[in-house]
Design goal:
This protein is an alpha/beta fold. The protein contains ten helices and 29 strands. It has an eight-stranded mixed sheet. It has a six-stranded mixed sheet with strand order 9-3-2-13-20-19. It has a five-stranded mixed sheet with strand order 22-29-28-25-26, with no helix packed on it. Helix 1 (16-27) packs parallel to helix 4, helix 1 (16-27) runs parallel beside helix 7 and helix 7 packs antiparallel against helix 8 (331-356). The radius of gyration is 24 Å and the shape is globular.
Length: 499
């Protein structure tokens, strides 16, 4: 049996969560392997909504433009009435982009295309998914994790510093750790299928019988493909026939139309909706991300997005600890992400209840821009702020001008695996440069000019303020020039960050 000791992190599961973590670790130069027990990529549409906050993350990871090019926006919903008429509506509250929030509406792209783009990005960074490779068991001690794998080339043993369970709601890692997964079954069972059909145009999301949970059915054109996604509640018990003929019978019965005909089924699944949250996200050197830690009903498009953000939070922390930071930094992963998942689970369940009544309206609450870590032990303010953004909040974007005259977006300067320190109308003298930190000053004598006040307004900045932005785009600390020395706490091996 082969023994491999050349890897720092083993990621088990190559869905959106595993791929996000792999991309982030790859750009940081961390040694890892990404394994997936399936022999080929997932080819269903399942998580098809990309929320504005995830769009910001994808911009940082270098894939947003590709995601936009391959997907599209959600079409209006067309509600069909019993008399044959219909009415169209936009379930998303219309919003315009702002300098602080450049992405304002969810994107639609089927999950298999999202993951394809992510695998392409990972390949650019020199890594591939190992399909057909399954984690069979593991043991951990004070210095690492010993894992046993069964891959196409045979069994092997792997010694790593950390193991990540990104293997889904029924995954092996959480079960092996004996972590409880409490929650509830929501009393709704549904089918979802990606199909080629005729009889409907692709300019609308077609919904029938929205007032009746038992006979609802929706057919949504999937951006970037020739497919439609069918969604329909089904009885809680019994076998489900997902064949072309059976789905055609269901469509005819629920729409009252015989002109809508399925030609082929690309992917189909029947599932019972659950809302569950793992009791723990970490057991020593093993972590859970994505659906392995939380599962959601599909309402509001929160599941994939929350999973991506789990990995985005964990990636920089793993890299920092591997480079020598205190292992206690990794405790902040569960501290920050588990409350977010609990909040999002509540939102998804609330939206499911509304959907049962035919209410599909969505607002800012699903965009995930307002989720943050103000209560985190990593959030520092000296002195505490009375207004504006706070430590732990998402760092807003801003339109600026470089001192050389060229336009700049703040997000362009934040992009990458580094920390960023921003000073507003400050004297830079006395701020010590260091590896992994980029320092910019905004103001009349700075390298960035805030001509239109976008930075000042977004950050409620006063002359002399400093803002430390974490690698994941959240504000770590906000201090005045008089308190700038406390930022040294962030760079010590075992920092005390009590605000």
């Amino acid at each position: 049996m082969m023994q491999d000791d050349s890897t720092d992190v083993l990621i088990c599961g190559a869905g959106a969560a595993g791929l996000t973590l792999a991309i982030d670790l790859a750009r940081r130069g961390v040694r890892f392997r990404l394994i997936e027990k399936m022999r080929e990529p997932f080819h269903g549409s399942r998580g098809k909504g990309i929320q504005p906050r995830t769009q910001e993350i994808f911009e940082d990871l270098g894939i947003l433009d590709r995601i936009v090019a391959r997907g599209g926006v959600y079409p209006p919903q067309r509600e069909y009435r019993s008399d044959g008429s219909h009415v169209e509506s936009n379930p998303m509250e219309p919003r315009e982009p702002t300098p602080a929030e450049p992405y304002h509406i969810p994107l639609m792209i089927p999950q298999f295309l999202t993951e394809r783009v992510m695998r392409e990005r990972l390949a650019e960074l020199g890594h591939l998914v190992e399909f057909g490779c399954e984690l069979m068991g593991f043991e951990q001690d004070d210095t690492g994790v010993s894992a046993r794998l069964r891959c196409e080339r045979g069994e092997e043993r792997l010694r790593v510093r950390y193991l990540i369970g990104a293997d889904g709601g029924r995954g092996f890692v959480r079960s092996a750790l004996d972590i409880e997964f409490p929650g509830k079954t929501l009393g709704v069972r549904a089918l979802v299928a990606d199909v080629v059909l005729s009889g409907l145009d692709r300019t609308a999301w077609h919904r029938f019988n929205s007032e009746s949970m038992e006979t609802q059915i929706s057919l949504c054109p999937l951006a970037g493909t020739e497919l439609f996604q069918i969604q329909a509640p089904i009885p809680l018990e019994g076998e489900v026939d997902l064949s072309v003929s059976a789905l055609n019978v269901m469509i005819a019965e629920r729409t009252g139309r015989n002109d809508i005909r399925i030609q082929s089924v690309s992917w189909a699944s029947a599932y019972t909706m659950n809302a569950r949250l793992a009791d723990r996200y970490r057991v020593a050197r093993v972590f859970l991300v994505g659906d392995a830690a939380h599962i959601h009903p599909p309402t509001g498009g929160q599941g994939l997005n929350t999973s991506v953000q789990d990995s985005y939070n964990l990636g920089w922390k793993l890299a920092a600890v591997i480079e020598g930071r205190s292992d206690s930094l990794l405790d902040t992963y569960e501290e920050e992400r588990r409350p977010i998942a609990a909040s999002v689970l509540g939102l998804s369940t609330h939206l499911l209840d509304a959907a049962k009544r035919g209410d599909m309206r969505r607002g800012r609450e699903v965009h995930q821009l307002d989720l943050g870590y103000q209560k985190s032990s990593l959030a520092m303010e000296k002195p505490p702020r009375a207004r504006g953004v706070r430590a732990g909040d998402r760092a807003p974007d801003a339109l600026l001008r470089g001192a050389g005259g060229q336009p700049k977006r703040l997000f362009e300067l934040l992009a990458g695996p580094h920390w960023t320190l921003l000073g507003f109308e400050v004297d830079r003298n006395g701020v010590r440069p260091r590896a992994g930190l980029r320092i910019h000053t905004v103001g009349s004598r700075g390298d960035l000019i805030d001509d239109d006040g976008h930075f000042e307004n977004a950050y409620a900045a006063s002359p002399g303020d400093w803002v430390l932005v974490r690698p994941d785009g959240y504000i770590g600390a906000m201090v005045t020039s008089q308190e700038i020395s406390v930022l040294e706490h962030y760079w010590r091996p075992s920092p005390d960050r009590t605000a």
